[in-house]
Amino acid sequence: MLAGASHVSTQVGCSFSGLRERLREATSAAHRALDTRLSAFDLGGLAGYGRFLQASAGALLPLEAALVEAGVERMFADWPERSRSAAIAVDLGRLGTSAASTVSVPRLTRSGVLGTMYVLEGSRLGAKFLLKTIADAGDPRISEATTYLRHGAGERLWQSFLVKLASEEPGDEDEIIDSARIAFDAFERAADRA
Ligand code: HEM
Q1: Which parts of the chain are coiled coil (predicted)?
Q2: Residues with CB under 6 A from ligand 1
Q3: By C-alpha distance, which of 77, 164, 74 is closest to 114?
């Protein structure tokens, strides 16, 4: 079911920018691969859900740390509202664990911040499908550990991210796209370890 939900719709923000279209195109294969990968975890079972959270935290924590290091808050004043490191730590804590292994990621330039933010903000969009699987499984220990997946539900943060992306000066598009690929790769590597 998750694999079926994995197509990346052209509906969201398609009127915004050519850069967003380029980002989606350049990362669609990586998105599909990651979606297939994460969908293979049994999210309805404690062990599988724990592995999913470990895989997510293994990339999210270092990517968010790199964003902070690069001054993400100067570009996104609402960063505290967007950050999900604390949320995923809460969920792992509820499962009686903490982030086991994180991947290393490069330092980010301003363009790197945008490409990384594209991937992290976009990753919220699949959450409603994952939450449905969890709800169907009906295990309260898992449902109570979904702060990360519920974080910023709705598309407000995604839409306001797209507005910001569209307002960027063209020129560093290749670097933005490279950093989005690197962020997807960080999730792949974290999934390898989980
Ligand atoms: C099993 C897990 C996942 C599922 C089922 C899923 C599903 C989806 C869906 C349905 C959309 C389109 C939403 C819409 O257009 O309204 C989407 C968009 C997106 N997802 Fe995922 N996703 C998953 C995991 C991830 C992860 C882990 C990342 C990044 C690390 C990610 C990054 C993105 C991005 C960047 C977009 C926006 C693409 C665009 O520009 O339109 N997704 N996802």
Answers
A1: none
A2: 2, 5-6, 8-9, 11-12, 20, 23-24, 31, 34-35, 38-39, 118-119, 122-123, 125-126, 129-130, 184, 187
A3: 164
Average pLDDT, the chain: 91
Report the candidate in 185, 166, 169 with the shortest Cα–Cα distance to residue 12: 166
When divided into structural domains, the chain yields a total of 1
- In contact, 142 and 94? CB cutoff 8 Å: no
Q: Whose CA is nearest to atom 43 of ligand 1?
A: 126
Q: For the chain, how long is the longest CA-to-CA vector?
A: 49
Flag residues of the chain having pLDDT under 50: 1-16
User: Which residue among 7, 8, 25, 67 has the greatest number of ligand 1 atoms within 8 angstroms of its CB, and so is best to mutate?
Assistant: 8
Q: Tell me how far apart the alpha carbons of residues 144 and 134 are, in angstroms, rounded to a whole number.
A: 10
Domain contains 89: yes
SS3 call for 7 = coil
pLDDT digits (tens, 9 = 90+) for 152-177: 999 999 999 999 999 887 679 999 99
Structural domain of residue 141, as residue ranges? 23-193
